[in-house]
UniProtKB/TrEMBL annotation:
GO terms for molecular function: 1-phosphofructokinase activity; ATP binding; tagatose-6-phosphate kinase activity. It catalyses: beta-D-fructose 1-phosphate + ATP = beta-D-fructose 1,6-bisphosphate + ADP + H(+); D-tagatofuranose 6-phosphate + ATP = D-tagatofuranose 1,6-bisphosphate + ADP + H(+). The keyword Transport does not apply. Residues 11-283 form the Carbohydrate kinase PfkB domain. GO terms for biological process: carbohydrate catabolic process; D-tagatose 6-phosphate catabolic process; lactose metabolic process; small molecule metabolic process. Its EC number is 2.7.1.144. The keyword Metal-binding does not apply. InterPro entries: 1-PFruKinase, Carboh/pur_kinase_PfkB_CS, PfkB_dom, Ribokinase-like, Tagatose/fructose_Pkinase. This is Tagatose-6-phosphate kinase. CDD domains: FruK_PfkB_like (cd01164). Keywords: ATP-binding, Kinase, Lactose metabolism, Nucleotide-binding, Transferase. Catalyzes the ATP-dependent phosphorylation of fructose-l-phosphate to fructose-l,6-bisphosphate. Belongs to the carbohydrate kinase pfkB family. Belongs to the carbohydrate kinase PfkB family. LacC subfamily.
Length: 303
């Protein structure tokens, strides 16, 4: 089975403002509330590609109810722990540029954590678990490490998409994929990474530490794949950016879904690029039709 874990899901409130003026009353001219959180996004794109992944994590309050309702509409299975405190709302403002304000997330009590751990204990040999996004403030920074230790001991493999220091102890446990963006890669090494050479060198360091595949996404500059068979660059595909929220998650979904089916990292990278691009060019996450439309435009070259 494939699982996605979103410890800190969200409603993504996406809104558009003509010219944002700080400190003034700004009127929104277009708005939409979408189910969000990195793991949720991964499972929605996997569904579009024809693979079912079960969502695990925590949901609470009216915001949690909204997400549950959306997952039902998308026919995505889930086994979230119901918590007392409401799931967060993340603000995504589209003005001249994209600005995001993400909440801290709810408080989760020890009973709720214990219920979640029981679900993790059911993960079996051969399962694949994708852990994505931030950790709510009431859980320890080491929570991913704890989960991955259990998941590995139970014989499952894992993918992790989170930023900062938390990634270091997970690398030696051989994640199938890590996908930092350029900024997150810099945070990880506590440095500013600018050139392609620097990206490749730092990406290779992640590989040396244990990651099986690395994708560094560069937003409107495309991405770089670093694997045991070589380093490849996908240029960004020309088109109009509509909403890049979830583009990185779409890449993760496309890569993992295809790798598990084909065991071909380059084919997986190609689908990942089509998924990321298709999501960047639409308001919500991409549909299968939109992903297929981008496939012929994907161009990958070896570096
Ligand atoms: N403006 C753009 N034009 C073309 N492609 C884009 C654009 N923005 C994103 N993409 C595609 O989506 C991929 C992932 O984007 P990005 O690097 O922004 O991910 P991210 O920062 O992880 O995003 P998120 O955390 O919101 O999911 C890029 O590598 C590229 O293929
Ligand atoms: O605060 P986190 O957990 O790091 O990121 C959460 C988030 O920004 O990631 C997704 C896009 O990748 C959005 O749906 C969601 O709002």
């Amino acid at each position: 089975m494939i699982y996605t874990i979103t410890l800190n899901p969200s409603i993504d409130y996406i809104f558009k403002v003509e010219h944002f003026e700080e400190g003034a009353l700004n009127h929104i001219f277009d708005e939409e509330a979408l189910p969000g959180g990195k793991g949720l996004n991964v499972s929605r794109i996997m569904k579009a590609l024809g693979t079912t992944a079960t969502n695990l994590g925590f949901l609470g309050g009216f915001t949690g109810d909204f997400i549950e309702q959306k997952l039902a509409e998308h026919q995505i299975p889930h086994d979230f722990v119901k918590i007392e405190h409401p799931t967060r709302i993340n603000l995504k403002m589209k003005a001249n540029t994209e600005t995001e304000l993400n909440g801290l997330g709810p408080t989760i009590n020890s009973q709720e954590v214990a219920q979640f751990m029981q679900k993790i204990a059911q993960i079996k040999m051969g399962d694949v678990v994708i852990l994505s996004g931030s950790i709510p403030k009431s859980l320890s920074d080491d929570f991913y490490n704890e989960l991955v230790t259990m998941i590995k001991n139970q014989g499952a493999s894992f993918v992790v998409d989170t930023s900062g220091e938390k990634l270091w102890p997970l690398l030696s446990k051989e994640p199938l994929l890590v996908k930092p963006n350029q900024h997150e890669l810099g945070l990880l090494f506590n440095t500013k990474i600018e050139s392609i050479e620097e990206i490749v060198d730092h990406g290779k360091a992640l590989l040396d530490k244990g990651a099986q595949h690395v994708i560094v996404s560069l937003g409107g500059e495309g991405s770089i794949y670093i694997g045991k068979t070589g380093v490849y660059r996908a240029q960004a595909i020309n088109g109009s950016l509509v909403n890049s929220v979830g583009a990185g998650d779409s890449m993760v979904a496309g890569f993992v879904e295809t790798l598990l089916k084909t065991n071909d990292p380059l084919e997986a990278y190609k689908i990942a690029v089509a998924c990321g691009t298709a999501t960047a060019f639409t308001q919500d996450l991409a549909t299968m039709e939109q992903i297929n439309e981008q496939l012929p435009n994907v161009s990958i070259s070896q570096l």
